[in-house]
Design a protein that fits this description.
single chain, mainly alpha, 3 helices, about 0% strand, elongated
């Protein structure tokens, strides 16, 4: 589904856009906007990950020991080593 919107662009951008054939303008704008929005989303997610990393407390044991302990809890008959 397509949606028609009104946007304001500066004069220089309009001059550049006028050289693009009418049928290609919407496609160009859609592709550019989609790429920019994807970039903004990545930046936001990176900021969230960095904030979570900074606020997380360090693990008391390394990942291997944690996995072994969890595995032993799930399957105590396997010896846990």
């Amino acid at each position: 589904m397509s949606h028609r919107i009104n946007v304001l662009i500066d004069d220089q951008l309009w001059e550049d856009l006028r050289h693009i054939p009418r049928g290609e303008r919407s496609r160009l704008i859609n592709e550019s906007l989609a790429e920019r929005l994807k970039q903004k989303k990545r930046e936001r997610l990176l900021e969230e990950m960095q904030a979570a990393t900074c606020s997380a407390k360090p693990a008391e044991e390394d990942a291997v020991m944690l996995l072994r302990r969890q595995r032993y809890r799930l399957h105590p008959d396997q010896g846990g080593s």
